Amino acid sequence: MLKKLLLGAGLVGMAAAPLLAQTTNSGTDKFAQLGTTLPTPNTYRTASGAPGSDYWQQRADYNIRVKLDDDKQAISGSEDITYTNLSPDVLTYLWVQLDQNILDKNSITAATQVNAVQDKMSFQALDYLVKSDFDGGFKIESVNVKGGKALPYVINHTMMRVDLPMPLRPKQAFTFSIAWHYNVNDQLKINQRSGYEFFPDDKNYLYEIAQFYPRMAVYSDNQGWQHKQFLGTGEFTLPFGDYRVSITAPADHVVGATGTLQNPDQVLSATQRKRFAQAASATKPVLIVTQQEAEKAEQGRAKGTKTWTYAAKNVRDFAWASSRKFIWDAMGIKQNGVPVMCMSYYPKEGNPLWGKYSTEVVAHTIKTYSKFTIPYAYPVAISVHGPVGGMEYPMLCFNGGRPEKDGTYSADRKYGMISVIIHEVGHNFFPMIINSDERQWSWMDEGLNTFVQYLTEQEWERDYPSRRGEPKNIVDYMKTDKSLQTPIMTNSESVLQFGPNAYAKPATGLNMLRETILGRQLFDYAFKTYAQRWAYKHPEPADFFRTMEDASGTDLDWFWRGWFYTTDRTDLAIEGVKWYSVDSKNPEIENARKREMLNAEPKTLSQQRNLQDIQKTLVDIKPDLKDFYNSYDPIATTDADKTRYQQYVSKLTPEQQTRLKAGLNFYEMDLRNVGGLVMPVIVQMTYEDGKQEIVNIPAEIWRKNNEHVTKVFVTEKPVVSFVLDPYLETADTDLSNNAYPQRAAPSRFELFEQQQRAQPNPMQQQQTSMQQKEQKPGTSAGGAN
């Protein structure tokens, strides 16, 4: 119960009185501006978060010839790179990324990997410790001026410096050529972002190929050359350009790639071209290569080759996939009037999941992301199923999610597959178009993308089981020991708990901004503004932070500081509540209230026992011992009391008389910030009549004291309980201190047998039940005869 106290009538206006404002500071300042932390604005990047008047970025155009050796699982290729210097600087050398060197026998990644020997280890774990004989690094054959002499170059692990024959001045371009080859890794044994899968049943290979060519590093206004080594976690920072790529593969392979196919007459049959044309205006996916045709192709081995040529404009990278196992379907959509061909490539092992869902998910993702960011402007969007669980490239991505061999699948497998396709297709927006520095800041592509993935999942199906995005889903991570966490603003290679840190926490933070701190209208406008400003450019964290504030008209430095720069957690607590009401001075009302309170007071144990044990007291036996005070009622209303009240009221103004009689309730709540993270205070009040009210107090309530504040709530009806964050909006890590009166937070534990057997998925259980019915005489799958 809430204890009720009285306020003197002279304090009726106390809730707004300046004298009662909190002035004590906690000694910290979580509302300090980020001005000294963020880089100084300049003519390249403005204080508003927009590109400046002198913003520039480099350009790299590619003409690539590459060949797949299906017998040796190897790649060989050559490329011409035209590098255009649009910076104000004179360059004497260029840096090229050799990310495939992560699989070099002398890889810096392997050398710096920390590990330990366990008492019991699997063979797979042992393989990670024993140096593999596999060598998958680039073998650079030559680096030349195009059509000319050799260029000096130096390889530094995953980076290669190419020395220019003469300085490259602003507005000048330079074209040079590189030839190389390398071995493709078995993705199921050496898990990377690219590789092959071997299918022993039909003895075929499926290739998902990326990072297959030497790629230009980024040279930018804010850091010069991005030459941080590729250690495996921090992904790829790349400049934009136009690509023309010719891929030579076995003649019976189907090849899908970034961009649009330039020579369909040479590589597709007339039937396939006709189906492809039909798919452009179809309302559901059209099979370009059917499962029956793919299964027939699996049985043969072509001796010749075909060359598939793809072209892509204004992209930052290129990837492709090749196999004779591929089923291929497509469906065209219009996005802001621009045609987009949504497609999927997958082996029969992916059905029925892939044929039913993949291309539909691709189309849904393009439409939903375009709504929340910018219209998708590329001509195709492709999902490929193979050994890579999830990886993104412009217009094409690799995705996992395979049903059981009998074609059944669990709900987790279905939704996991849909989610990974949404996520990887969504990467077309972050970072393929809004081209952030993945090598430095994984959260800028993974976190922002995971946030829009959450929005897209919710528009796929009502109450979609999203793993990330909702604040309640990040609580377990936020509760982990701080020594196991790093701030979001940590370099990609140094992040601990990468999934929660780079994906879930930033996505959750954006959801909190959208739902609780800014509201959907302000947030959606600001987020779209960021996408519009930095489409086909290179944004940095400060550009995002500043744009979100600039376009929403809201100072969010406190939020960036707490959620992105620290490992503080949300844990707001109600330490106590005092219930006050105004003393009306009316003796009849106040004395009746006092009598009610007096009668409600519990009898002590001694008083209860005395009623039983002491039949009569002395004054009961000798009444002459009684005097005035034995019959005196101190809370009885007298005529003098009534007169004094009338005199008091007569001196008040009409407004004061109204306030005196209003019967308002004043609740003084003590709040403590236990977790260190300042957040809005969301209070749910439940009244005596069962109705509820939500009060949302902005985080600035903590600005003068980051640890402890007192807030007064004024209500017309009595409140029976208070609850903080009733709808789990702020990722509060301890709900046990969120209620007053305090209530226990519910939890559960699970009982299990010591040895558990793998259970069939629900689809398998149903099939087994149907088969058992069919085996019984006199019954059929449809029921009794």
UniProtKB/TrEMBL annotation:
Domain of life from the UniProt record: Bacteria
Entry keyword rRNA-binding: no
Annotated Peptidase M1 membrane alanine aminopeptidase domain residues: 357-563
GO biological process: peptide catabolic process
Keywords associated with the record: Signal
Ranges annotated as biased composition (Low complexity): 754-772
Signal peptide: 1-21
An example Gene Ontology CC term for this record: extracellular space
UniProt keyword Signal present: yes
Region (Disordered): 747-785
PANTHER family per the UniProt record, alphabetical: PROTEASE M1 ZINC METALLOPROTEASE (PTHR11533), PUROMYCIN-SENSITIVE AMINOPEPTIDASE-RELATED (PTHR11533:SF174)
The protein's name in its UniProt record: M1 family peptidase
